[in-house]
Amino acid sequence: MLVIELLKAVFLGVVEGITEWLPISSTGHMILVDEFIQLNASDAFKEMFLVVIQLGAILAVVLLYFHKLNPFSSIKTRREKRETRRIWYKVIVGVIPAAVLGFLFDDWLNEHLYNYWTVAIMLIVYGALFIVIENRNRSRRSRINSFNELSYKTAFLIGMFQVLSLIPGTSRSGATILGGIILGSSRKIAAEYSFFLSIPVMFGASALKLAKFGSDFSSLEIGVLLTGMVVAFVVSVIAIRMLMGYIKRHDFKAFGWYRIVLGILVTAYFILSR
Questions:
Q1: Gap between the Cα atoms of 115 and 106, Å rounded
Q2: Are 126 and 180 in contact (CB under 8 A)?
Q3: pTM of the predicted model, to two decimals?
Q4: Whole-number Å distance between alpha carbons of 220 and 217
């Protein structure tokens, strides 16, 4: 029993580590995977697990971008420290919309939207949007190529796009990257800003779930959670590096087609299985 549950946690950690950063919806994939690989745990634990496991993925961002995000680094000049603080100010501005609405509607979203129909529809809709927007921007030059060029207004508007990711299947990184590109950001800045926004958002979401359900879980459940988090962390480090290398030479249309195909397959599977 213990070995099987830990293996499930490893698999879920791999899925989380890959899908958290690619614009293909980690929550959507985790909901779908749960149809085939279900943890032998209470519903409360599984709801908490699907959110808190993302802490492992977030720590990968902290590790990879620690120097860039550290305003107290002794090797940074005064100007560089000031620029780092401005990045954090813009992250805070961008986090506000999703933080407020996520807190207010967390229970309603879990009750009404965490299902395969929502996931399938959002996979297809945002897949199509990625293709359309990348085709539209094919001959356009980005006007935001550094965080200094990212205004507070644009940061807030990208944060508004992040609100859309409260709907499962949308993808938090997908919504923010798409928003950034629409608003004139380069793919690199849009992706990095999406990573940075995830830090306070996911720490806050995890704290909300832990406050809601507490920590009164069995030793097996705690072991499963920690295993999933560690695996998600390791896989996330690899996934983030691969994504940043990929977007130097490619656009996001491949992820759009993946979302559409997966959305169709999900719809067909659940229709036929029921």
A1: 15
A2: no
A3: 0.88
A4: 8
Q: How confident is the model at residue 243, as a pLDDT?
A: 95
CB proximity list for 70: less than 8 A, separation 6 or greater: 76, 84
Find tokens 């609405």 and name the residue: 101
Mean pLDDT is lowest, of 70-74, 194-198, 217-221, 240-244, for 217-221
Tokens 């169709």, located at residue: 264
| Confidence class for position 104, pLDDT limits 50, 70, 90 | confident
Task: Give CA–CA dist 230/55, Å, rounded.
Answer: 9
Q: Which two tokens stand for residue 75?
A: 């090797």
The count of domains in the chain is 1
In the three-class reduction of DSSP (H, G, I as helix; E, B as strand; rest coil), residue 99 is classed as: helix
User: Would you list the DSSP string of 110-129?
Assistant: HHHT-SHHHHHHHHHHHHHH
- Structural domain including 131 reads 2-273
User: How far apart are the C-alpha atoms of 265 and 130, rounded to whole Å?
Assistant: 19
